Amino acid sequence: MEKVFKIGNRSFTLDQDKAEEAFAAKKVINGRKTEAFNLLPLKYTWAYDIYRDMKANHWEPEDIQMQKDIEQWQGSDLSDSDRWIIRMGIGYFSAAEGIVGDNIIHVVRELVTAPELKLVLGRHAHEENVHADSLLYMISSLGINPHECEAMFEQIPTIKKKNEFVTRVSHELRRDADMTDPVNKKKFARDIFLFGQCMEGTQFYGLFGMILSLYRQNKFPGIGQMFQYTLRDESNHIKLLRHLFLELIRENPEIWTEDFKEELVQTMIEAIALEKEFIADCLPVSSVGLSDADFCSYIDYIADRRLEGVGLRQLNPGIQNPFPWLAETMDIKKEANFFEQRVTEYQKSSSLASVSDDEL
Ligand code: FE
Ligand code: MN
């Protein structure tokens, strides 16, 4: 029996019995292993939807003007703490983006079995490449010595500790982990929670907030814009890893014990503590309206949103966002700027491509 399946504006005719069999064999982990990329029939439609959102947001660093940033960097109007925040931003993210991409490609994308999950995770890793590339673009535009960034990663203890905190979990899960073992299932769930909710979801937000505060004061408009686009991508990564986590738990409910939930909450507590130490390093003096205490409560607020999102207990129930303006700066969909043009072009060319695919 044949049936028509619809995905977006495309439709596909599939043999019903075979489709149901293939559908049943799709799982987050321990599903059918196949070399062919059998996307159809889609089981995890949310994954494909996120993939489509991601490609509609495509951007390239060179599309952003750095002239004003260069003038400001070389001029005398900036304070030392403004420059320090930018250096910390470039120093931390240069390593962090790579660490996330590495975990997605070598751990998460390897261990999941459904092709639509591999598809969206491939895009996720690519976006980390774009972010890493945007940092190269900032470093070369401002004329910062690249060895200085590497030195920051090695020598600033709060950056080192944040990075070690995530890599020690991902290194336990390299290829060939037996995913039928509940111990490994928990490690995998913890990895996805750690990277999506603790690192990208919480530990990225201290610097995001600081750099966007500078941007709001018309400092570093090019860098600010790149971080806005990066942040928009990160929101999709957090969402993707949140869905993946929830789906993994749904399919493997035996790991969702009270002990395991508490282990995850403790992981978030550790992430928050590391982030607060890091914030103190970024803001050694309360400058340009940025206070260390406000950033710390911002992190508490963000962390609770992440815990809530995956059904875990909150640490500061009822906490208010100390930076309501930041939510607005972060929501760039509302903003009209030169870049909208380019985003539309990417969307247009992709929908044209899909029309011609259908006609073939
Ligand atoms: Fe990133
Ligand atoms: Mn990311």
- Spatial arrangement of strands, main beta sheet: 1-2
The largest pleated sheet is described as: 2 strands, antiparallel
The coarse silhouette is: globular
CATH topology: Ribonucleotide Reductase, subunit A
Question: Which ligands, by name, code or SMILES, are bound?
Answer: fe (iii) ion, manganese (II) ion
In the CATH hierarchy, what is the superfamily? Ribonucleotide Reductase, subunit A
- Portion of residues within helices: 55-70%
SSE run = EEHHHHHHHHHHHHHH
Uncertain segments:
334-341, 343-360
Query: How much strand?
Result: under 5%
Task: Supply the number of helical segments.
Answer: 14
Distance between the termini: 24 Å
Question: Any idea what the CATH architecture is?
Answer: Orthogonal Bundle
Number of domains: 1
The overall strand count is 2
Can you identify the CATH class? Mainly Alpha
